[in-house]
Amino acid sequence: MEFYGMTGEKLGVIGQIDGTKSKFDDLPQWKKDLLQKPSISVRKGIAWGFSSPYEDTSTLVLTSKAGAFVDIRFPSNFAKSRPLTEDPAFWAFSGVATMRFYEGMPHTAHGVWTHDIDSRDEAIRDEGDLFLLGNGDCVETGLMKNPRTERMAMYKEYWTSPGVVEITPCVVARTSESEGWHGVVIRVGNYCQGIMARHNQGKSEEKQVKVLVERWQRTRIDRGRSVEEEQEEKREWLKDGRSNTSDEGGDSEKVPCMWACREDRRIGDEVVVAGVQWKVVEWEL
User: Fold this and answer.
1) Most Cβ neighbours (<10 Å): which of 134, 263, 265, 274?
2) In 10 A of CB 147, how many CB atoms?
3) Predicted model pTM
4) How far is the C-alpha of 256 from the C-alpha of 269, rounded, in Å?
5) What does the pLDDT average to over 103-122?
6) What is the Cα–Cα distance from 51 to 57, expressed in whole angstroms?
7) C-alpha–C-alpha distance, residues 216 and 241, integer Å
């Protein structure tokens, strides 16, 4: 993840060596808290204009040490009778996050998130000011299109973390050369998310025609065993039922989350799934 001073000078890249670590170590603790990666972020609510906050999604953001992220926002009241992508509350995107600090404004930063893949298939400028609260949560403010009104409006998003969680292993896999498919899978500790979009590749302007998303969490399964057996029992990966890939093969094979989550995964590992090549481009144990 790149971070800058407010005048634009590059202070370093989290995840690189060559003096960056010493610069990071010299930062005040509040800056370290805002820059700490890998990270797992959960949205607690959003407020438009001066209205009260609410939350109509299950939003989870996984960010790697280098700033790659996958942000998936599942509708809280999702009706499986219609496609996930037709629900106005659904949104998923992936890109790279960067951070700038305002001079003379402690506990504050300006974030920019590129949308290299976006389920809404529209060009947007995603940036906002982050305010670090005393309890470690963040408030993000900025301008964004309100999906309910289709108009640009001021927003406030309230972010937290799941608590004491593991942030390693961290694995990032990306598609290589493929027939119109572009995808990213990120694992951070016991969470994994993947997004994949396919575009037409004709002579006319490219248009997105399909988006696939998955969310997984590794958790313990209570099977009524004894305490000793439970202590020895390994956690299992469970797929979020709102993911729009099949559990019976087919499209589910195009988002290789479980391949990326194998404990023997390493940088440079490659796999071809349903004709699409994937490669591990970032790895941290």
Assistant:
1) 265
2) 13
3) 0.87
4) 13
5) 94
6) 17
7) 9
Residue count of the chain: 285
Closest Cα partner for 107 from 127, 128, 133? 133
Q: What are the tens digits of pLDDT across the range 181-191?
A: 899 999 999 99
Domains annotated for the chain, with CATH where assigned, are 21-160 (2.40.128.320), 170-284 (2.40.128.310)
User: Is 15:1 a contact under the CB 8 Å cutoff?
Assistant: yes
